[in-house]
Structures are given as structure tokens and as C-alpha cells.
Design goal:
The protein is an all-alpha fold. It is built from six helices and no strands.
Length: about 210
Amino acid sequence: MRFLPRDEKFYDLFEAGVKTVVEGAVRLDEMIRNFTDAPLKAKQIKDIEHEGDVITHKAIELLNLTFVTPLDREDIHNLITALDDVLDYIEACAERLSLFRINKTTDEARMLVGVLVQSVKELEQAVFKLRRLKGADSIIKNCLEIDRLEHEGDYICRAAVAKLFEPGSDPLEVIKWKEIYETMENAIDRCEDVANVLEGIVLKTA
């Protein structure tokens, strides 16, 4: 039986971290399409976010205890914390949907969360290729697709917010949905932050 070097644990934590991000995004997508039991669904996403926090803390603790790391220390820290940031915004969006007592979705919300789910799945593919840097060119392709999705998310969010201010809109609903849209957009933006870290790692080792 081959003894795995300790630094393999970083890749285990990266992969566990991105899995929680994907799970959180998928649960948010389900919540936005069906608001039945919204408080319970928000609590489930909160639990996933807490699981992500635990993974992040484990990675930072391991980083502080490891003398020789498989990647630059700064890259390890930036990658795990950037993944955590995505999940934080996903949880924040779910919390707002519950607290604001949203019971009817919008086409724009469905489109935005769809972009978010696509983005985190691209992240998952890229992170799982990171171990021993298999498929470096393919990781770059994932990063480019995440960048494209981020631009798409920006466009959808701007159009969604503009639509809120059409004549006859309920001011309270405008306030609620503007914050929800912008929180979802922030989650998509944070995916691009993760992609930038991954791209930097690939370029450094090319």
C-alpha cells in the first residue's frame, strides 16, 4: 500500500470544498424554482455553508502546519477562501429568499441561478483536474467558460434590475428582488475569482 504524502490532503480539501459549493448552488436552484418549505431549504443551505467553513478552516490549519506545500502557499490560501466566498453568497441569497418571504419566482432569477449552477460545475471540473495538474489546457478552458458565464450573469442582472423599475412596480418588491439579484450576481462573480486563482496556478507550473 502506497503511503500518500501529506500534501495530498490539500487536494482532498479543494475537492471537498468545491463539492459543497456545487451542492449549495443546486439546492439554491431548487429553492428558487419551488418555494415550498423555504425556511427549511434555507436552513439546509446554511448547513452546507457551515460544512464549507469547516473545510476552509481545516485547509488553513493544515497550511499553517505544513512546511513544504504542493502549490504556493498564497495560492492554496486564495483558492480555498475563494471557494468559501462563493458558498457564502449562495447561503446569503437563500437566507434573503426566506427572510423576505418570497413565494413567487421570476424568469430572471431562474436564469441567474442557472448561470450560477453552470459556473460552479465548471469550477468543479477544473478543481478535480488540479491534482498533479492533469489537463492544464482543459483547466484554462474551464476558466474561460466561467469568465463568459460571469459576463452573461452581469447582463442578466442588469436587465433584471432595470425591469424592476418599470412603472407600476411595487417599491417593496423592488427592494427585495434588487438585493436578491445582486447577491446572486456576487456569487457568480466570486466564481470568476476562483477561476483566476486556478488560471494563475496553471500558468505558474506551465
